[in-house]
Each structure stands twice: as structure tokens, then as C-alpha cells.
Records
---
Amino acid sequence: MSLLILIIIFTAVGGVLSVMAAAVFLLLPDHRRAAVLPHGISFAIGALLAVAFWGLIPEAFAQIKPEQFQALSGTILAGVLGFFVLEKLLIWRHCHSGDCEAHGDEDEHEHDRGHSHSHGMAKSAGALIILGDGIHNFVDGVLIAAAFLTDVHLGIVTSLAVAAHEIPQEVGDFAILLHSGYSKSKALFYNMLASLTTVLGGVLAYFGLEDLHDSLPYFLALAASSFIYIAVADLIPSLHKKTDMKTSLQQIALIAMGVLLICSLHGIAHNMEV
């Protein structure tokens, strides 16, 4: 079997398998899923921040020379600010199409505008998580292809490690998309679509790894900035709606669990790749 076919098969396994495993979350009854969803948001915050700070950013800096550190840091900063602007545009587009600035009774208008604004923010968070996940999965595909081009056995192990590493993050992505108002079918469709960028990254890396290698750290930096922005700007503020001690402790514990699980899986994956 040709190396290209192996890369296509195992990048598909690395991307799609993790989505299908995480999709079990969608099989829960509506009332059970509604009860689990807030906990999933807390877990997702920890997972997203851990992927960014424990995995993507260190990996990006490890692949560049010291004189490029400032440029890479600037890319992360530009990414965070860029996603802020993108979210503003998405919210503005939603409000414009929904006439959230229409004239009318002031109190009623303020209520409708607030509702439309909140809904627009939720929708934009969903759009950003799909975009960020697509970039992240593309980079995974490049890494899997690079491993296969080094050694077939290493490629197989790396693709399985990527799948295992992605499952908890994909569960968090489903939670975010459902929280953003996506239906179960749309959440599955968009997550599956984002997972296919793993195959795209693998195929492009096979044909031009030399050219992609120089830009790979900057893809990693953009993926990290999207995850940081989503966690800090969109998800953490939603946790402040409930401030009682029991809920706050649960949120902190679940965020810590998301961080610890991602860090543990990242360590396992690194040991397997070595």
C-alpha cells in the first residue's frame, strides 16, 4: 500500500474517529444533556486552555529559532485580536439581519437587543470553535504525515495518539456548539467537517512538507490564539452567572479536570511518539 494511501486512511482515523467517539455525548436524552452541558462548558475551558498552553504554543516555539520568538508571539497576539474583530463582525451581522437595532418601545427594545446580542455571541463562539478546530486538525494532519514520512510504524502510533488526544477536546466542542444553539445534527456535521481538515493537512504535507514546515509554527500559534480567546472571552464569562459556593467549586474542579486530562494525554502521546 502506498504511503499516500496510508496517510489518508490514518489522518481520517485520527480526525473522524475522535469525533465519532465524542458523539456519544449526543445520544444522551435532552434533559440529561441539558444537565450535563454546563459541566461540559467548564471542562471545555480547561481542555482548550491546556491544549493551547501545554501543547500548541510550546510546540510552536520548539520549531523556530530564538530570533523568531517575537514574530511568533506577535502572531498569537494578532490571532486573539483578530478573533475579537471576527466575533464583532459575526455579532453585528446577526444583529443587522435580526433588526436588533429597530426602533420601538425602549425597554422592550433593550430586552430584545440584549437577547439578540447574547444569541449572536453564542453563535459566534460556535463559529470560532469550528474555525479553531479546523486549524488544529489541519496541523494534526501535517504532524501525522510527517511521522509517516519518517517511519510507517511511527505514523500509525502518532495517528492513534492524536485520536486519543482529541476525544476529550471534541466532547468539549460538542458542548460548546450545543450551548451556542446548534442542533445535534448540525453540531455533528460541523465537527465532522472540521475533522476532515486532518486529511487535508496530511495530503498537503505529503506533497509539500518542506514548504509547510516553515509556516507550521504559525498555524499552531493561530490555533492556540483561537482556543484562548474562546475560553477567556466567551466561555468563562458564562460561568459567572452562578456564584454560589457549590457551583463555583464544581466549575473549578471541572476546569482542573480538563487541564489535567489534556496534559496527561499529551504526555502519553509524546511518549508514544518518542
Note: The CA atoms of residues 50 and 259 lie 5 Å apart.
---
Amino acid sequence: MNAAPADQIRLLDLQALDTRLGQLAHKRKSLPEHAELQALEADLTQHRDLLVAAQTEESDTAREQTKAEQDVDQVRQRAVRDQQRLDSGAGMSPKDLENLQHEVASLAKRQGDLEDVVLEIMERRESAQERVTELTGRVASVQAKVDDATARRDAALGEIDAEAASVAKERELVAGSVPADLLGLYDKLRVKEGGVGAARLFQRRCEGCRQELAITELNEVRAAAADKVVRCENCSRILVRTSESGL
């Protein structure tokens, strides 16, 4: 393939732009905020799960407390009724009065036991409420960190994307000035050779593979016409000759 030396040199400009686009794409994927957000979101999910569990426990103990308080109230009301009957003694035999006294005493003990149960439940509910408050604060704290990291990531992505758009536009202009056949070869090699399709020959060394040309290859390059598109024997990339090639 033949191409004007100026067109070949433009490949170096094109390569520099493609290299920058590759760097920006890598930078976009490897922003530290990505890993930070992944860790924070895992932490947030864990704390939210713990919060839901604590809220469920608090809700369950609240229902348990209501039921226990209702049991106490029922025993208390029954004890009041029995005490009123005992105090009046109307139409009751001594045996009935004795049985009623035993029942009142039994109800008093039952009420005391149930009130102890209510206190125990209230303590558990208070503990659950404290846990809910603590975890609510933790969730809010982690969420704030997530929001901050998200804002920093989005700002960084915005800068990267803006630069990438500018570089892509410049690449389009440069690519448009390169002959189609030369551009096609360059693009094919760029895909095949890890993003580098053309490299400068600098001081007898290919800057694509960093290998110095063998003497026979160097002589062939020296003998090649200025418009001949030469390739590196080591990496197959297009070798672009300049005044600094050492020929």
C-alpha cells in the first residue's frame, strides 16, 4: 500500500486520539467511586435489612404488649366485680363467701403475674425501639455517604464524557483526512493489536512493540519509497517514518 508521507504522519495524530479515547474509557470504568459505591450499597442493604428486622420485632412486641395489657384489664375488671360482690355479701352463704374470697386472692395473684409479663414485654419493646432508632441513624448516615459518592462519581463521569466527546469529534475530523484504504488498514490493525494500529519509528525502534529493528529490516525501511506504507516485522503495526526515525 502507498500513501503520502503526510497522510501517514496523520496516523500518529489519529493514534494519539484513539489512545486518549481508550484511556478515558478505562478511566470511566475504573473510577474509585465505583468500588466505593459498591461497598457502600452493600453496607446500606445490610443495615436496611437489620432495620426491617428491628422494626418487625418492635411491631411484634407492641402487639404482644397490647394483648398482655388486655389480659391484665380483664383480670382487674373481674376482680373488681368479685370484690363488689364480696363487699355486699347479699344472698351469699358463708361457703360462697369463702370461695369468693379465694377467687379474689387468686385474681390478685394472677393480675400481679400478668403485670410482671407486661413489664417484661415493655422492656423488650423499649430495647427494640432503641435498636430501631440506632439503625435508622446508621441507614441515614450510610445513605448520605452513598449520595456523596454518587455525586462525585457523576461529576467525574461528566468530565470524562465531555472530554471523550471532544476527542471523538477531533478524531472524526482527522480520520476524514486520511485516505480510506490507509484508514481501513489502520483500524483493522488497531483492533487486532490492542488498540495501537500505527506507531512511530523513533531512533530505529518501533514505539508500538518497543523493539529495535533488525539491520535487515532497517535496510528495507531505508530503501522503501517515502510513500510506501511499511510495517513492523515484530508487531505488524504500521511504521510511520519521521525525521527522528534514525534512518
Note: The chain is about 75% helix and 5% strand.
---
Amino acid sequence: MVTPPPKPWPTGAAEQIEPLIRRVLAPNPSPYTYTGTQTYVVGAGAGCAVIDPGPDDPAHLAALEAAIGGEPVHAIMCTHTHRDHSPASRPLAQRTGAPIVGCAPLAFDVDGPRADEGFDPDYEADRVLADGEAMTGPGWTLRAVATPGHVSNHLCFALEESGALFTGDHVMGWSTSVVVPPDGDMGQYMRSLGLLHEREDRIYYPAHGPAVDKPRQLVRGMIGHRRQRENQIMRLLGEAPRAVEQLVERMYKGLDPRLTKAAGLSVSAHLIDLERRGLVGRSGNIWQTN
């Protein structure tokens, strides 16, 4: 995780980052969203798609309408249904008449503290894209790449005309993705990382943070980082049975206190995956190696 760049940030501005891609930053910065959610408008004037419309915020919706500039909207596309990604899909659909396309609905109750933005229980899709299905418009094709793990309904979208991949929260250059059990699944997340590593996308555009111009290198490093964390957990449990909080204290030296919950959820996701593989077990809230 890295420190956000100094202000001012381009919040609300339509940035032309490629001939087919405009980017608009939402006003929702936080320790988990970096400088805010980045909404992408894909198209060159004859008709566009809006990816990850973001929070239902009046200023952000006005900025999106300005970025669209009266261009027909063919689809409003959501990578997943966390509250910092999908709620603006509904008012934007009402204003533009565009269908909501992309990930499947998911409303999941999680007991205890959450580290992410939480789920959007009111999300509905007019069309759910399966892995490999595409949404097309004038001069652009966005193909769904199923990447469960961060959440079970997560999709990335590949822009075939430019080699760009919109990665939502699955891969970000500024931070590893938070995997929150029980819907978030570390085993699925690792398999999805492996899938992306096999692809040859030119550049990643995540929903938070800067573009990733060496995607395979980053993904390879992320896989290595997760394996390192897994090995660290196994080593610490090999020394003595421990609770999640004790593992976090040993594993994350100098951690920003605001991120302690996220670290605990990540460790829990690793432990659940290790348990499924028969490598660890638990008695109450205490984990040990098998």
C-alpha cells in the first residue's frame, strides 16, 4: 500500500487517457478507496459504455453526465457490487435510459466489522455477463473476464480494441485487494490472479489508483506476496497456536491502525483457504497446524 499523491486530485474532471477511454474520479477517498472510485467512459463519440459508475453522489453523477456529453450510453457496466462501485448505476440508468450490464446481483450479510465499502443490496442487472461474453458498441468491444475472489461476483472487462483491462478491485497498483470472508475467497482469488497472469493485456485500469503498465509483472508479484503471507502464517502457527489478532500483530509491523481490520480479514481468508486444504484447523478462535 502506498501513500496517495498530493492534492489537488482530478476529482470530477473528465481525463482522456486513451482515444477510447475517459476517466472520472469520484469524491469518495478513504484508506480503502485511495483517492476515490475511478469511473471509466469507453467510446469515441458515437456511443459509450460507463464502467463502475461509483457511489450515488450528486456531484459525481453531474461529472459523469458532463463527461458523457450527450453521447448515447449503450451500457452501464459494473465489475462488482460494493457500495463504492455500483449504486450510481440506478440514477445514471434513469437519466440515460441505458441498461445495467455486467456482474450478477449479490446482497450478502456479514456479521462483525467490515473493512470495505459493504455490498449494494439494491443492485439489479438488466443483463448479466458470463465469462467470455461481450458488450459491444460503436468501435468498442468489452469482454467479461470472470475473476472471483475479492467477491464472488467480480468481473474484469477487456477492451479488445486497445488491449486494456478494467480490473475493478481485483488488481490495483497501490494496494493488494481486500478478501473478506465468507463471500471473499482466497483460493478463488489466487486462481483468478493466475488466470490474469496467463493473459497478455497491455495495461490495467483499476477502479482505484494509477494505471498498471506492467500488468504481468505486478500480478506475478501479487501471487508471490500472497504465497509469502501463507508461508508466514504456517510458520507462526508452527511455533504455537494463535488467534487471528495475534497473527496480525506478528505479521504486520507498523501497520496503520485504520487498516488493522482489513489485515485481520485477509489473514482470516488465508486461514479458511488453508483449512479447506487440510493444512490448519481451529478450536474456537484459536488456529493451529494439522
Note: The first strand starts at residue 14 and ends at 18.
